[in-house]
Description:
Elements: H1 3-57, H2 62-71, E1 100-102, E2 108-110
Antiparallel strand pairs: 1-2
Pfam family, one: TRIM_CC
InterPro entries: TRIM8/14/16/25/29/45/65_CC (IPR058030)
Organism: Pongo abelii (Sumatran orangutan)
Amino acid sequence: MQFGELLAAVRKAQANVMLFLEEKEQAALSQANGIKAHLEYRSAEMEKSKQELERMAAISNTVQFLERSMTSELKCLPLFSANIGLPDLSPAPGNSSSNMRMTSHSTRTQHT
């Protein structure tokens, strides 16, 4: 192989590496912009929640506080629940609780 061919191969490899790095940089920038947009959205949501909490903290009347808390935007805050192993006693959709009973196996059955 002559020096000219070797130089051309090195330049081609260099161009391929540069293209690869530019693609990776663009992907990283795109991902960073997506993360930034998500964080800005979450920040705005948290600011709304903070303002609502501040408004609610200023309410001195307990009844007004409870009424407002039921209709406030705090519904967007995550609620956590725990499964403590109790059977689900709520009726299945479309069934009223009057025609349901629990069996010894904690499963729903309908009265016939």
